[in-house]
Each structure stands twice: as C-alpha cells, then as structure tokens.
Amino acid sequence: MGIIRAASAWDEHQISRFLADTVIPLRLACVDRKRDPLVCSLWYLYAEGAFWCATRQSARVIAFLEAEPRCGFEVAPETMPYRGVRGQGRVSLSAEKGPGLLLRLVDRYLGSRDSGFASWLINRSADEVAIRIEADWMTSWDFSKRMDKR
Question: Residue 54: CB partners within 8 Å, gap ≥ 6?
Fold first, then answer.
C-alpha cells in the first residue's frame, strides 16, 4: 500500500475500504513527452495493495508511462462532502493482464457484461494493457464533519 502520511484523515484500513467502496474514476497524473503535466481519468480496482487500471495499448498515456513510470493519483468524488485519497507512486504495465483486468473493471463499473457498451469494450479487450500503480505514499482528507455545519 505504501506509506500512509501522518496527516492522513484515515488509516490504512479506512483508505482500503474507501477505495473498495468508491466506484468513480481514478485521476492519474503523469508527464508527456515534452515533460508537461497530463491528467487522465481511468476506471480502477484496488487490489493486492495496488491500483489497477486498463487502457488500450495505443493510448498515448501508455507511451508516457513507459517513458516515465512515476505518477500521481487521486480518487475523490466531485460532490460534497469532499473527501478522498491521493498520493504518488510508480507504474508497471502488463499487456498479458490487460484483457482479464478489463473484465473485472467492466463488472465493477457497469455491473454486468450484458450491455452494448460492455460488449463493445470486451470485443476490443485483446489490445488492453493493465496499469498497476504501486503507491510510494498516500494520504486522505475528509471534510464531512466540517461540511455538516453548513
């Protein structure tokens, strides 16, 4: 899981539970070929102490991560109460694990493989690459109590 910063609102167990229960995209920050920052949103699964995402081999973010595996990430809803998890880590890529991971992500985000969108994704899964993000550190914030006083 990486180091949980001392100022984190939640401990390791609370962070793991939030990441398991929160079904929104992860924001992944990396740098492009010109070393300019880039943020992209990806479906994620938190398992085995790491974040797992998938995208097409041809996605530009794959080339950027191959060139520079260090990244930042955030999982936080855009609605009140504001809370979430962010950190920095390193990425490893696996074309071999991509298709299977995509199925798990479809199940998590769509709840079923029966829709037209799910079928479209699954039919293209041979070209998926798994992105594993191992956190160097993480922290969380939770403004729930503060926002209850509105």
Answer: 42, 43, 98, 101, 102, 105, 128, 129, 130, 131
Q: Using CA atoms in the order 116, 74, 3, 148, what is the torsion angle rounded to 10 degrees?
A: -110
Reading phi first (left if > 0) and then psi (alpha if -120 to 50, else beta), residue 35 is in left
CATH code at 45?
2.30.110.10
Element (H, E) at 117: helix 116-123
Query: pLDDT at residue 2 above 80?
Result: no
Q: pTM, whole model, 2 decimals?
A: 0.92
Q: How far is CA 70 from CA 4, 80, 95, in A?
A: 18, 30, 19
Residue 149: inside a domain: no
Does the residue 40 lie in any domain? yes
Q: How many CB atoms lie within 10 A of CB 149?
A: 5
